[in-house]
Design goal:
By secondary structure, the chain is α+β, with helices and mostly antiparallel strands. It folds into two domains: about 80 residues, 2-Layer Sandwich (GMP Synthetase, Chain A, domain 3); about 60 residues, Roll (SH3 type barrels), CATH 2.30.30. Helices cover about 25% and strands about 40% of the residues. It is built from three helices and eight strands. α2 links the parallel β2 and β3. α1 crosses α2. The longest helix is centred in the middle third of the chain and has 18 residues.
């Protein structure tokens, strides 16, 4: 996890949880002079527009005071949605048995593959075990760049 992302998470997660929302995670997407800070929240009953607005007001106040981002940015508050992103090892454990699309930081197989689609089957010593095309592969959590649950329709 990038240092900036970790700093933002340490700053914002306590605010979100104090409001009785689950802090799912955040993405900080640097786009030159204008970046995006996207914070994902959830509750047992889901998240609506009013929930996002309430959290946005609170986080905006904290970000204005702490000023952790030097450049211009947009703050977005979102539910995790159907293609829920996974940020923490505990989230992978929570979704064992679910199909996931994920991308790794570095190639994981001899063929240089970095993008995968598979089912989470287990967690072992900070490694996530996936069933990818009927083959079990173990990926260190630290090697996963991005992962999302595959929505079922």
């Amino acid at each position: 996890m990038a240092i900036k992302t970790q700093q933002l998470e340490n700053l914002l997660e306590p605010v979100v949880t104090s409001m009785d929302y689950e802090f799912v995670g955040l993405e900080f997407i640097s786009q030159g002079r204008h970046s995006i800070l996207r914070v994902f929240i959830d509750t047992e009953n889901g998240v609506g527009v009013d929930d996002c607005a309430d959290v946005s007001r609170q986080l905006s106040a904290v970000l204005d005071v702490e000023d952790p981002i030097a450049s211009e940015y947009s703050l977005e508050i979102s539910s995790p949605g159907l293609n829920r992103p996974l940020f923490k090892l505990s989230q992978y454990e929570q979704f064992i048995g679910e199909e996931v699309k994920f991308k790794t930081i570095r190639p994981q197989l001899e063929n240089g593959q970095r993008k995968f689609k598979g089912v989470i089957t287990a967690i072992e010593n900070n490694n996530i075990i996936f069933d990818v095309e009927n083959e079990s592969i173990s990926i260190p959590f630290s090697d996963i760049d991005k992962a999302n649950i595959v929505a079922k329709f």
